[in-house]
Amino acid sequence: MNSSNSLIPRNFTKVLIICLVLLGICVLASLVLGSRLVRIPELIDGLFHPDVDSYGASVVRKRISRTVFSLFCGAALGVSGALMQAVTRNPLADPSILGVNTGASLFVVCGIAFLNISTANQYIWLALAGAAITAVFVFGIGSMGRGGATPIKLILAGAATSAALSSLVTAIMIPRSYVMDQFRFWQVGSVGSATWSGIATFIPFLVIGVLTAILTAPALNALALGDEVAAGQGVRTGTLRLVAALAGVLLCGATTALAGPIGFIGLLSTHVIRLILGPDLRFVIPMSAISGAIILTISDVCGRLIGSPGELEVGVVTAFIGAPILILLAIKSKVRSL
After folding, report:
1. What does the domain layout of the chain look like in residue ranges?
2. How far is CA 336 from CA 93, 183, 322, 333, in A?
3. Which of 57, 58, 165, 276 would give a disulfide with 45, using CB separation of 3.0 to 4.6 Å?
4. DSSP state of 279
5. How many beta carbons lie within 10 A of that of residue 206, not counting itself?
6. Quick check: 243 and 296 in contact, CB under 8 A?
7. What is the pLDDT of residue 108?
8. What does the pLDDT average to over 191-207?
């Protein structure tokens, strides 16, 4: 492996401190800001005085679970995006762009319509199955023809698959009003319905996915140099791609199951970190988790402020921010491979 890979980026410590400070500010903003502004004494009561039962303290306690869930979902999507970009060697890879979110959505809506599911545990397993099958299908389609799985072919395959699956979702929902009522709020993408039981269900998937990503990062660095170079360094490229892709699907599928199909977090967080720190995945992956948590949490806060006295779902906010950035990246990068 290139000797430069063993070096810590010279600005890593500074970037880490800045990101942690931003993360703290996002957490504070998530607890304080919304349709009801929380004052500092109410914030202290809600965090440290469980015996106080004021309205402000109750608002803070409700927002704690939402904030934790937002941080976890953002971290999961950030790591998932980094893994998918590394596995496909595609700088524009993201669960939403490759159709993985839509595949998870289709399986969830099928479960609601035909299996009468309604719990987080049931959502998760169906979403994981849908995400995995869609990821394999998109990669298979994108690998056909000359040149194998090029960035443009993967993006086109993901877009086409996502459009087709979205049509299926609509076809299943339209004649079933009860399915539409249950599904339409989930489909937008939101962290507003967070519960501690849902967070507990999500944590094992988050831990397994992130640990797998961190452990495979050195080998993925070798893979970025090409399959032949990686194989020459003892990397089993097929096994590595499978394990890393499964970790990415696990993170994306579990998040989609509980929060809905929130897009562009993986793309934005990984691109920002890669631009600042370089391509070394040993640093990109953990920092993508932090930046993903920051982006999703601040997007949730913005949605609350923009939609006040109601709220604008976070999936709408991230799409509004992410879509033009994706277009800009596609134009500037000319869809080059990593």
Report:
1. 66-333
2. 12, 37, 19, 6
3. 57
4. S
5. 20
6. no
7. 86
8. 88
Residue type, 68: V
97 phi and psi angles, rounded to 5 deg: -75, -35
| Tally of CB atoms within 10 A around 261 | 26
Identity of the residue numbered 167? S
Q: How many residues does the chain have?
A: 338
More confident residue, 188 or 298: 298
| 113 contacts 172 by C-beta, under 8 angstroms | yes
User: In terms of Cα–Cα distance, which of 122, 101, 83 is closest to 188?
Assistant: 101
Minimum mean pLDDT among 154-168, 254-268, 272-286, 323-337: which range?
323-337
Q: How far apart are CA 327 and CA 338, in angstroms?
A: 18
Residue 181 has pLDDT above 70, yes or no: no
Q: Which pTM does this prediction carry?
A: 0.85
Contact criterion met (CB below 8 Å) for 308 and 34: yes
pLDDT, tens digit, 9 for 90 and up, residues 11-20 = 889 999 999 9
Q: How confident is the model at residue 5 (pLDDT cuts 50, 70, 90)?
A: very low
What is the residue type of 310? G
Q: What is the CATH number of domain 66-333?
A: 1.10.3470.10
Q: What is the dihedral of CA 263, 247, 154, 285, to 10 degrees?
A: 70
Contact predicate 93/310, CB 8 Å? no
**Tokens matching residue 125:** 């397993």
Cα separation, 235 vs 241, whole angstroms: 10
